[in-house]
Amino acid sequence: MMMASDPGLTAALTAVLPAVQVLTTAEDLAVFAFDGTAILHQLPACVVMPETVEQVAAVLRVASERHVAVVTRGSGTGLSGGSVPCEGCIVLCLVRLNRILEVDTANLTMTVEPGVVTQVIAERAAEVGLFYPPDPGSIRISTIGGNVANNSGGLRGLKYGVTRDYVMALQVAMADGQILTTGTKCVKDVAGFSLRDLFIGSEGTLGVITRITLKLIPQPAAKATLLGLFDEMTAAAETISAIIAAKIIPCTLEFLDRTTAECVEGYAHIGLPTDVAAVTLMEVDGHPAQVEQQAAQIEQIARDHGAREVRRAATAAEATQLASARRTAFSALARRAPTVILEDVTVPRSRLAEMVAAIQRIAADHDVTIGTFGHMGDGNLHPTFLTDERNAAEMARVEAAMKEIFQVTIDLEGTITGEHGVGLAKKPFLPAAVGPVAMEVMRRLKKDFDPAGILNPGKIFD
């Protein structure tokens, strides 16, 4: 790929974009050298800030003609290194494609550009009495294009699913600048291959998403929020399993371990005890009568399984405070150490207690600090390493512990990422997770969609 010192690249880009939309100074490039992933960073050759689909296509044509890598980026909140530049690349930042193009209340859809912040989508839907359920932890800053590219999950994934479940149609700029449209507003559409689904979760390796049509649903009429405090992690896991076994599907079933709860309380000051083994956040929504019944059932199940205390939010403000405290987990942990590595593994719900116990054992075996929180209702855990990248010996132990966590996850019939993506950080572990046939099929698809290999090269696989 072309190196950063090549003067011809800037000239070619400023021929198709206003010069002000092409960034080349060291100060500007430094801002785009990393994403939310710890440790990984690399200066690009330049950054372009297109404002239209036509400009995106023009940049891709330049890159294709000159065989220059293109790394697409939104807000840079990714946690797997998916938007970390490669040497000599163009960073294609889409934050200026940030218009809501249509809210269609007759068909319950919204069409947006990729740079729209996810929280803005949720708020715009709410204004017309509708609901966009996916809610990644970075909802206030992450963009919908990045959510689609990584198939992001969130706190409400148990009941409502993930980003893929709400994408109806995409417009995609291909590697050579051609524009592909796939999907429709139709609830039923089985005409040809589902190309739309190939781009969801492809992490910018197959095309650049330039427009998205999202499904919306009616807002739930009521919600109840409960907080469970447990002296044993296994009791919390068993409570979650019992709730599902009782045929209750909450919209949220979250948990924090002791390390995370201590950090959250020190950060948010909401009155969490810091001597508990686990804190669970449990929310149900729907018809008011059903919500009341299920909240009472959940409270009783938690008590029957050894909860020290179950608190129910008395007001909407208190419920928001409790949910917001869970969203601060990453930020709260980040205050404890110079380097925070937030991981993402998922196991079948029936193996949750085993996985949590394994993480605790692995932390002790390797003498590393791990705070664990996550979406216990759907088996998605976030073991978070509190470390210091300047300490080589400690980082070696962190790496060994991380490898063991991924191997245990696979042994428990789990997956190495539930919502963060593969990117750079998890690329070495993907073959063991999906097998050689799946790897070969993905490589074939990459070759067909991106023959010159310019789109986010080196991510997911080499």
Describe the protein in words.
The longest helix has 20 residues, at 392-411. Strand 5 (100-104) and strand 6 form a beta hairpin. Among the domains are: 7-93, Uridine Diphospho-n-acetylenolpyruvylglucosamine Reductase, domain 2 (2-Layer Sandwich); 100-218, 2-Layer Sandwich (Uridine Diphospho-n-acetylenolpyruvylglucosamine Reductase, domain 3), CATH 3.30.465; 220-329, Alpha-Beta Plaits (2-Layer Sandwich). Helix content is 36%, strand content 21%. Helix 8 packs across helix 10 (288-304) and helix 8 runs antiparallel to helix 13. Strands 12, 13, 14, 15, 16, 17, 18 and 19 form an eight-stranded antiparallel β-sheet that branches. A five-stranded antiparallel β-sheet has the order 5-6-10-8-9. A four-stranded mixed β-sheet has the order 1-2-4-3, with helices on one face. The mean pLDDT is 94. By secondary structure, the chain is an alpha+beta fold. The radius of gyration is 22 Å and the shape is globular.
